[in-house]
Amino acid sequence: MARRVINKKRHLGLQQLSAFADTGRTFLGPVKSSKFIIDEESHESVVVGSTVRLLESLDLSSAVGQLLSEAVQAQHNTYRTGASTLLLLVGAWSSAVEECLHLGVPMSLIVSGMSEGLDSCIEEVTSLKVPVHDVFDHIDSTKTFSELEPLNVSLCPFLQIPSDTGLILKERDLKDVASQSLTTYSLSERPVKSAKLFRPQATVDADKNTSQTPQTLRNSLLAGGRCRQSVLTHSRHCNREASDQWTSKHGAAAPQTDRCGDLGELAAGLSHGDHSSMRLVEGAIRLQHQNTSMCQGSWMMPFTFDTSRVFTCCLPGLPETFSCVCPGYVTVVSMFSATVLEDLQNQPLGVVLIEGDLTENYRHLGFNKSANVQTVLESMKKLQQDSSEELWTNHVLQVLVKFNVNLVLVQGTVSEHLIEKCVHTKRLVIGSVSGSVLQAFAEASGAMQVSYITQVNENSVGRGVSVTSWRSSPLDAGDGISRMAILLKTEGINLVTAVLTDPVTAQLQTKEDRFWTCAYRLHYALKEQKVFLGGGAVEFLCLSHLQILMEQPLNNGDQICSGGLHNTSSWLASSLALYRPTVLKCLADGWHKYLSTVICNTANYSSEFEARTFIQHHLKNATDSGSPSSYILNEYSKLSSGVFSSGISNKPEQIPRVYDIVTPKIEAWRRALDLVLLVLQTDSEIITGSGHTQIKSQESEGFLFL
Q1: What GO biological process, any one, is recorded here (predicted)?
Q2: Does 369 map to a domain?
Q3: Alpha helices in 176-293, H assignment, sequence order
């Protein structure tokens, strides 16, 4: 980690936040860079590619470090996305608040002003929300994302299967996988009432006088696209009648090509430059919904992406082109256990699902072994020959033989001795299986989950599960132990596995993190049925909105209407008018730094100075236009303008529109500001405590108050 000089005469906590945040700037934007973290004592290194993994590898033993880690973990555990945005805004706003303190702005005005300013920005960006069904209904005709042509199969338009040869495992690579059993694809927002202190009346009046309102421009933007050509000619979603209905409903000409619903545009806009991961996510959702009745209604109906039924399996040492998604459960077993595959594959198997451990000494948490009680067996000779574990193992085998069970899935750990015995009798036992996987197999096979092997009966055994090797050759993870990847599935199972491969083992963790980030972006977009216009559009609107507020005079009536300024003194009221532009500029600096970082990470600008100049140019144009939201929507429609686009293609016609998820982004803003203001107020209370006056100034220079 780069060293940073801390000025002990200024706010230490805010400086520490800013120093921590600067380490994660390369994780924001479409072109991300990994980092090497080196331990100073052991000199061991690890590669990290996300904010969460970065903070896990750093020494965050300080109070400020702990608060930052908790905030990032809360964001990640709740939404699985937005951690990089949170970290960058924490650093930007920490530096800006520190500058406000240096300029003499009272702490109470910083807290109230920035909080209400953020609330005003959150209300302002609602004009940039786009319903998901509008994205589906107004798809651009250009192949913006995956450049894939759908296979000629009879599926609903939403379920058309991509056939990217670069990401689909060819038959020669998976000769041991039956083609019929493996279909492979590669591929609380809180309402905020605007604070009257920051309500931009001038902007509202300008919007009313504009010839095109933001809503009109947004509708025009969405209506300007054309749908991709579908292979279906008789679907009710893709025919001439649909075009006529569009004309009668919206009073405008329908796009030239047949209309259809498609996931590609939304997935492309939410990929944020990580196309390979989003292709896999797109394939997973198509697999998850291919057996549902999605074709019974229009795509304006709500539907979701169940991430709890999607799993990852990381396989090191294989080329990246082997990454794919497939229905069923892909896992790794030892080569010793894999020897039974030849006898078990291509036949329906009986399965038992164990919720706990499958070991001899596993007991319920409430079980207490009775003291001074001895078990008397009929044959003491048998007791001497066989240990208690051997007796238990034999009993388990008897149960499996009795009910014709060849496959056992266990949520916890499994006795190694039992695994060895089962392999000799042509039975496969797999441990450390997720509870959601057990539930999926229970629903599809008719099995009942049990806690102990003694609870197994005819009704708890599932039928019809198949097992086969995912790839015939063994895998080497670099630890000297050979393993085999296998595939478990049964008819109608609602389970999808994303197989992630990479020749570099250290990159697999990053690849898995990015897959889940894309998956949860798509999950929340479909769950909330709305997205933000992305590419920095919402942050730019916040920046331009604050720019207008800074230049807007503060009315006398607004001074007493603000949520945190009731019954204020005349001094505080006069200070509010004096420091208000400074506080707003403090908040705006965070958005400015965020946008400049994103633009630099698109590889379009070589320095932050060029990026800031670019932002300042468009900020002036947006402010002069009188309606920043209208200006943003106009620029957003120009995909080749370099504004609000992904900036990852040299061909303007192939640049996808960019989208952002709503609630996780707003919550990242709130958490970032809450953390900065918490450190600001906590440090201030400690420094201004009753004991502070007893500390001499020369002694306090090297004292860390947090």
Answers
A1: photoreceptor cell maintenance
A2: no
A3: 201-209, 214-223, 240-250, 264-271, 275-289
